[in-house]
Amino acid sequence: MMDPAHAILFEPVRIGPVTAPNRFYQTPHATGFGWQRPQSGAALRGVKAEGGWGVVCTEYCSIHPSSDDSPYAFLTLWGDEDIAPLALTADAIHAHGSLAGIELWHGGAHAANRLTRVPTIAPSQQQALYHLPTTAREMDKSDISAFRGWQRAAARRAKAAGFDIVYVYAGHDYLPFQFLSPLTNRRSDEYGGALENRVRLLREMIEETRDAVGDTCAVAVRLAVDELQGPRGITSAGEGREIVEMLAELPDLWDVNVAGALGNDSKSARFAPEGFQEAQVGFVKALTTKPVVSVGRFTSPETMVSQIRRGVQDFIGAARPSIADPFLPAKLREGRADEIRECIGCNICRAANNEGVPLRCTQNPTMGEEWRRGWHPERIAPYPRRETALVVGAGPAGLEAALTLARRGLAVSLADASRDLGGRITREMTLPGLSTWGRVRDWRVTMLAKQPGAQIFRQSEMTAADIAEFGADHVVIATGSRWRRDGLGLGNHTPRDLPGALTPDDLFAGAPVGAEVVILDDEQYFMAGSWAEKLAVEGHKVSLVTPWATPATFAAATNEQDFVLERLLRLGVRLLPFTHVTHHRDGAAHLACAHTGRASQIACDTLVLCTGRLAQDDLFHALKGSLPNLARVGDCLQPSSIADAVYSAHRFARLLGQDDPPPRREVPPLR
Ligand code: ADP
Ligand code: SF4
User: What is the 424 CA–ligand 1 centroid distance (Å)?
Assistant: First the structure.
């Protein structure tokens, strides 16, 4: 039964001519499917609606070939042929009684137009950020007039496809925002100069979108109220506020955020807590009678209720929490708040978008697999026989394998050598800002406790003989990985003799660390930077060495790299790019330039090697050939992200006893 305190979240809310059945609003977010994979996109959005999100929006939908984000996946409403594929999404959302929103988009100077090769347009000439060395050309009056026509035409097509909420998108530094910001609008005509002039295009877009479709569709404005460039740009205390004042009652809904670049409104948990945008977006509701939605990685029902009661917003806007748990609203409605699979804020979902591949999620391995594999986050086929399984290792992979097998009806025993469950998570969540990662472990432990056929054995290190003697029908090895000591990494292919060097495993185990620390990042994700931060905060003098141009390259994909570098530089961590560590002796690390080989050295009491991990697969190999149903999953199979470990385990457990056909593809018909 629903907790009465949560009832406020299930009140209907009117948005212009339409009514949302509740306050759960899935704001637009990328899926990596785009116009090429409409069935995949429709299935994903349909699952969100099924899970109770009262409003479900699409990702960015280009209104014209001059806004082409290839090779990244985006939707299109360039012609009438786009209507039927998008109707699949609107229908999938309507099938569960939710409203369908569509985010009409023009990227302006940020549209690279690699596919269409149409010249890039902007309010004033500016570098095309994602298409070097192009300069976007300045739009003249006829371009502006044509642009307004594209928005109207796309809105009409969106309506024909069945959408209920049509966006005017003035956020994330895209074209309408480029007109708003004095940093990008240097025009001297009636569309530039004073704020009233810079707002002109947005005002026209709202009015004309309403004229085109406002009889049956709500017109939503997505506005970045702060672009985080200080007083030179749009700020929530300055022009961001004035824009909302000027247009307060014009749209049917305000979808507001802190943007500029995309990474600012989807900051990872390492750099921003739940509800982190409230200080900047909180003013909007007082200026308008129209409903307001914003985001903030909301996963706590108490925070959600507080957002509504305190008048911060009318909806609970969410992208990532709805990815991690499409059934978040349904679980609250049914009084199952403890079963919510909370987003951990790791931004692996952002990485998928930045890599141009379908959406993936650390917490939810079914995300993106709804159509191509037919996976559902809450339903799974029972295993046809009553059999037993032994899972060895209770890191993210072992926990996921055990839970998924138990959900399928197998009698599962999960054994771990340690007293603590969670494997690498229990260690990594002690690093600065990563405590939310513990949710990967906690959710699985909570759900396993509800499975009648599952039992957990702690402090139970298993040998090959123990496992064979256990006699389970299925054995799953999930023994993880260890950090390598031989110096081999992404950039260094020569084994190094580095006696006394520590690995992250040693640091987690409490190895003593000297005053002068050199950390080698030749792995390029979060580990080296996290330890640099932790040790610098503890008072060590830290140098971060990498053979590459910067440390933490993969953190660029998770939209974290800029924040990582800023934090390390503020802490006084010395960055040494293009550098190898060749040896370590007599209180010095000996270095070599990655390009010229020039030798140098720096003081070093403790050398830490973050260069990669090796699978701990001894048990698997010891048992191979002697057990009929033996598998390995997670880092023991392929050391990688937690997301990949969870996915690997889920895939194994879901497919156990079934064929493993290649995932379906949306192959276009030949004409
Ligand atoms: P993954 O990310 O693949 O889940 P982890 O490294 O997080 O891998 O977890 C591996 C887990 O396996 C650890 O909790 C470790 O204690 C456990 N483990 C390793 N070897 C054994 C063993 N022989 N018996 C039981 N547990 C083991
Ligand atoms: Fe949240 Fe990480 Fe999943 Fe993204 S990938 S939704 S940040 S848990």
Answer: 8
pLDDT digit string, tens, across residues 593-635: 999 999 999 999 999 999 999 999 999 999 999 999 999 999 9
Q: Which residues are catalytic?
A: 174
Q: Distance, CA 615 to ligand 1 centroid (Å)? A: 10
The predicted pLDDT at position 497 comes to 86
Report which of 370, 382, 417, 425 is spatially closest to residue 400, judged by C-alpha positions: 425
What is this structure's pTM?
0.97
Distance 391 CA to ligand 1 centre (A): 10
Q: Where are the alpha helices (DSSP H) in 450-597?
A: 464-470, 504-508, 527-537, 554-557, 561-570
Pocket test for ligand 2, best of 349, 434, 644, 647 (most atoms within 8 A of CB): 349
Q: Is the CB of 275 under 6 A from ligand 1?
A: no
By C-alpha distance, which of 349, 316, 668, 611 is closest to 493? 611
CA distance 62 to 249: 26
- What pLDDT shows up at residue 451? 97
Which of 320, 322, 360, 436 has most ligand 2 atoms within 8 Å of CB, for mutation?
Answer: 320
Residue that the structure tokens 């229990």 belong to:
426
With beta carbons less than 8 A apart as the criterion, state whether 366 and 653 touch. no
Low-confidence ranges of the chain (pLDDT < 70): 261-262
Q: How far apart are the C-alpha atoms of 233 and 236, rounded to whole Å?
A: 10
